[in-house]
């Protein structure tokens, strides 16, 4: 990679108290401004790796190295599989939450919240409640909440897995536009070959648990990526290549087990 390294995972192991080995010798380097997907079947440790990067759980072996030292509060945004919105709070109040926890008053947070809403195409919904929103809209609120602190790194844990295909495609398009606008680093967990190819510069293919890197693949399609790429021969070729790698990784994991 010719980009400045942002963080590296060095031989990360993770064994849970019940004896389950989630990760074994996971080593990955992420560059500044990268869009990287962790691709693998359910149970391969993708989410665990993301939580270790975020500092939400510790590794039992290996270490995480940040090129410029550990990130400060607000420099990491996390979007979970579920929107995890407060049902009693408005959209505005849900997005305000990370800033409020940092002591930023409502009046000073307002411009940043409205800007985040505009970026996820939810202007005019600041006074709505989660029960009034569709699944896709709830996920947009979750993304806005993660972006409102202007993070250096955005971690996304299968955020679109529960959405219908049309909504998922639209949010994939919007996510790339957001990434190009805010210029940060995105680490995206998915089990979808098609999604990983459309979004990513690099795809880290992981074996069935215990998770480890099977192969790193580069997607050479330039950005911005549009709908034409989804129906192109190059996209079909890239998907076939990644799919073969994933199948081989799953076979290797099963053989090792």
List keywords for this structure.
9 strands, 39% helix, 3-stranded antiparallel beta sheet, single chain, alpha/beta, Rossmann fold, 2 domains, globular, 257 residues, 6-stranded mixed beta sheet
Summarize the structure.
Helices cover 39% and strands 23% of the residues. The chain is an alpha/beta fold and 257 residues long.
Account of the 3D structure:
The protein has 257 residues and is α/β, with parallel strands linked by helices. The protein folds into two domains: 5-71 and 153-256, 3-Layer(aba) Sandwich (Rossmann fold); 83-151. It has eight helices and nine strands. The protein has helices spanning 46-54, 91-101, 106-119, 135-147, 165-182, 193-199, 227-230, 233-256, and strands spanning 5-15, 21-31, 35-39, 61-66, 76-79, 153-157, 185-190, 202-206, 213-218. The strands form two sheets. It has a six-stranded mixed sheet with strand order 5-6-7-3-8-9, with helices on both faces. Strand 1 (5-15) and strand 2 form a beta hairpin. Helix 2 packs parallel to helix 4 (135-147). 39% of the residues are buried. The model has no long low-confidence stretch (mean pLDDT 93).
Task: Present the secondary structure layout.
Elements: E1 5-15, E2 21-31, E3 35-39, H1 46-54, E4 61-66, E5 76-79, H2 91-101, H3 106-119, H4 135-147, E6 153-157, H5 165-182, E7 185-190, H6 193-199, E8 202-206, E9 213-218, H7 227-230, H8 233-256
């Amino acid at each position: 990679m010719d980009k400045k390294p942002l963080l590296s995972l060095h031989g990360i192991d993770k064994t849970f108290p019940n004896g389950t080995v989630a990760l074994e010798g996971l080593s990955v380097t992420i560059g500044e401004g990268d869009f990287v997907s962790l691709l693998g079947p359910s149970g391969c440790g993708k989410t665990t790796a993301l939580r270790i990067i975020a500092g939400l759980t510790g590794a039992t072996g290996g270490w995480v190295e940040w090129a410029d030292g550990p990130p400060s509060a607000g420099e990491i945004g996390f979007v979970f599989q579920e929107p995890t919105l407060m049902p009693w709070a408005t959209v505005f109040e849900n997005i305000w939450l990370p800033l409020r926890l940092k002591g930023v008053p409502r009046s000073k947070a307002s411009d940043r919240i409205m800007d985040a809403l505009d970026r996820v195409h939810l202007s005019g919904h600041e006074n709505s409640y989660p029960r009034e929103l569709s699944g896709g809209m709830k996920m947009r609120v979750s993304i806005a909440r993660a972006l409102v602190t202007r993070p250096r790194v955005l971690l996304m844990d299968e955020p679109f897995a529960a959405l219908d295909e049309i909504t998922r495609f639209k949010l994939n398009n919007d996510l790339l536009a957001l990434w190009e606008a805010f210029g940060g680093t995105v680490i995206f967990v998915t089990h979808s070959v098609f999604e990983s190819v459309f979004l990513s510069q690099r795809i880290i293919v992981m074996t069935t648990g215990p998770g480890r890197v099977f192969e790193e693949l580069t997607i050479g399609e330039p950005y911005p990526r549009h709908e034409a790429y989804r129906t192109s021969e190059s996209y079909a070729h890239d998907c076939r290549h990644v799919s073969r790698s994933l199948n081989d990784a799953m076979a290797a994991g099963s053989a090792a087990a």
